[in-house]
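Subject: dTDP-4-dehydrorhamnose 3,5-epimerase

B.,
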Amino acid sequence: MKYIDTSIPEVKIIEPTVFGDNRGFFMETFRVDEFTQNCSEKPFVQDNHSKSSHGILRGLHYQLKNTQGKLVRVTSGEVYDVAVDMRESSATFGQHVGVILSGENKKQLWVPEGFAHGFYVMSESAEFVYKCTDYYAPEHEISLTWNDANLAINWPLTNNQAPSLSAKDKNALSFNEAPKFT
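Prediction pasted inline below.
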């Protein structure tokens, strides 16, 4: 696997080596020895799998307690995936990384603890799988406004139409009012 630096040093794009022929393909999606050397030593405790339709935006989410690092990938379809630095003490505080993840490009994104995370479904549907370094704790979850002007995320919205959001995401906090990590 190739670990690629982004504009935020702690956020990594991971490109697997894919071996394929006319029968299909094989790839490693995770190796603990490489991952701990390049990303984090914190173990994963939970795997999640979601399916979403075109135009759905999930996020931007983070947990103040039970803070999660996430290793995310798409097994089918295509999404625009975003990580926002919510660590006030960081040199990249308030900045974000955005990358297209798809079943075709097989890229993964490491989103460390202290970051808000979200994705927008660009294909007809997308299946999204991810490993977490802590358990989901909805009582500690914060939803950050997806289109906050302070973040200036250039979401690739289809025909510039507003995305479909959950009730939680419709009532999300602005970047200025959202609690931060120290």
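The chain has a mean pLDDT of 97.

T.
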